[in-house]
Amino acid sequence: MKLTDKLKTYFKCKRYSEEDQKHYEKLKESEASLREGEERFRSLFDNSADGILLTAPDGEIFAANVSACRMLGRSEKEICQAGRDGIVDMSDPRLAAALEERRNTGKLRSEYFHIRKDGTRFPCEVTSSTFNDKDGNIRACTIFRDITERKQAQEALQDEKEKLLAIINATTDKIFLIDTDGIILAINGAASTHLGLDPDRAVGATVFDGVTPEIAQKRRARIQEICLAKQPFQSESKHQDEWIDTFFFPVVVGGKVARIVVYGRDITARKVAEEALKKNEKRYRSIFENAMEGIFQSDTHGRLIRANPALAKLYGYDSPEDMIINVTDIPHQLYANQNERKQHRKLLEEHGIVRNFEHEAIRKDGSKIWVSTNTRIVHDATGNILYYEGTVVADITSRKKAEEALKAEWEKYQAASENARAIVNATTDAIYLFNTDGVLLAINEAGAARLKIDFETAAGTNVYENVLPETEERRRSRVNEVIHTKKPMYYEADQRGRWYDTCLYPVITNETVTGIALYGRDITDRKLAEEELKKYHEQLEELVEDRTLELKAANKELESFSYSVSHDLRSPLRAIDGFSRILSEEHAANLSQEAQRYIGLVRTSARQMGKLIDDLLTFSRLSRQPLAKQSVAPADIVRQVLEQLHYMQEGRHIKISIGDLPVCQSDPSLLKVVYTNLLSNALKFTGKRDYAIIEIGCNGEGGEHVYYVKDNGVGFNMKYVEKLFGVFQRLHRANEYEGTGVGLANVQRIIHRHGGRIWVTSEMDKGTVFYFTFEKGGKLI
């Protein structure tokens, strides 16, 4: 019988006071409260997601809720029958320690394995506390939770961490992690060796240990600078005999820099090569500037790229710069005869190199001179023409005039003109006439000296006598060719250690060659100069070859680094982001708000690092991606880009005007990258305008198209314009305008690879205009 029923019976049988009545009412209220508490406890017990057991200290189990039955794969009766020994792994060493803790303190919190009915083990997080029942017996309420998924996630994270550490420790590059006080939190072997630290004791040391006060102060200033900027930073520095290229990547948590990843690569070999290359280039520059002959480089559009002082002087220009600026059409500005230009171009296309091509040239003042040109084509690795280069031999106008005069004088000489004989003998050039059998008919004093015969008795001597067999064979072959073709022949010959520029001219009578007139000028000094120039060219080619090898090695190293970044570094980042997401989405109920916020910051930092890595890879690939230039309509590209950037325009008042954008020669995919970066910047930096204005257009300047993108955004101070196109360079704070600082560097690289220019004008709070040029295009296909 319940207490209240007994009291009712009691008070029916006995008179009671008013005080007894109040006591009776309180007892009724207590019973109701106990009944309500029991119901709440039963609801909590039955509906809890965690397993709950009511047990005795010796392991006997009195009750188990639904979740406990589900996790253990048993009914409540089976659990009670099995007891602690049947559902817990008694061999787990953590169990004994936990039970001892509960005996001493009345409660425990631990992790140990439980066993399902099928015998499988699973890890659980367990909390338990003891209490006394109504009879004074010690009982325990034990709550346990299956943490299998959490353990798997932790193990996977640990595995990824170990893989990442293995990669970091295997590289020869220096990698370490510091906090904002310069204390080393993690470090690989290469970095500890570089810093002169014991690898086993490096963690906990500072980057200021064991260095001079000056170096320590510089490192503190660098850390402070990175903490303020919250942006990656790159620098090159010399440490003892090593050159190190160092990248600093800040890890931002809660809006503040918490740690800094430092990555350093030994670039000593590259620096040594660069210094050697500078010395070689300086030596080549000296050769180029001081050569007696004109030296040039020109592009495929007929414009000069480079010219030395001798070339400018030859053509009557004040300086090489004066000549490069003013000569924009080589075929029409430097060639007096367009047929000679076409012949020169044809020979160059057929043979790749043309030597001693003589043509009449035009000087700056309009006067004409004769020159002799040596030209070759320079190709890139894929066979495309990069440019033309060559030398222009000093003015040969006097020789050409002499040849023309000689032709007329020989005709007079046939009539035995004493005046012609006197003129011929007055020249220092060798001149003589012989018949088709090689018998000398006439000769001047210089010619007799060249043949080493007596001038007075030279007539009647045969030019094939008293010479070596191979010399006789060469002379007969040349003479026979002139007789057969009836055309002059020009050649250079080495005769007894002297070089002669020679012309064999046929004497034709009644359409038959009856004799040969020979004109020869001593060009030994010029040949010596050419040999010297040839040596200089060979040295230059060696320099180019060395530099090509260095570039190949650098590209190979860059490809290796790109693979490491894209595969070995991004894989752990994806793992960190993925497992952090699992913790955030599937275990949020078990995490505090602060822990959830930290997980969110980890995911944001991982994604930011991934975006930065992608941008760096894009930047490095731009210099190696082949150009597929064609005629492109920029207006079509602009409309595509604006459609893709539609999300940046929603809900805003923006006026976007697209002017006339002429066709240009460019790689369509790279031109799209240019407009994507410029237009996204324009939309981003006009974001705070109530009414944004963006203008895309083109101006004509000289022989090129100047395209532009103009906005009325926040602008910037022009004194920082030199930083604008640098990697990681930003002129606005990251918390105001997002970005990695790589976009404009990509734009500049693309435009320079197309042979164009890019520049910018801006004014604070008024807007910015980006100008850039591309080659004019033809008709669209």
Q: Can you walk through the features of this model?
A:
This protein is of the alpha+beta class and 781 residues long. The strands form five sheets. Strands 21, 22, 23, 24, 25, 26 and 27 form a seven-stranded mixed β-sheet that branches. The protein has a five-stranded antiparallel β-sheet with strand order 2-1-5-4-3, with helices on both faces. It has a five-stranded antiparallel β-sheet with strand order 7-6-10-9-8. The longest helix is centred in the last third of the chain and has 63 residues, at 524-586.
What summary fits the major beta sheet?
7 strands, mixed
Number of strands: 27
Structural class: alpha+beta
How many helices in DSSP terms? 22
Approximate helicity band: 40-55%
Low-confidence stretches: none
* Integer-rounded radius of gyration: 46 Å
Q: What share of residues are in beta strands?
A: 25-35%
Instruction: Average the pLDDT over all residues and give the rounded result.
Output: 81
C-alpha geometry: elongated
- What is the rounded distance between the termini? 103 Å
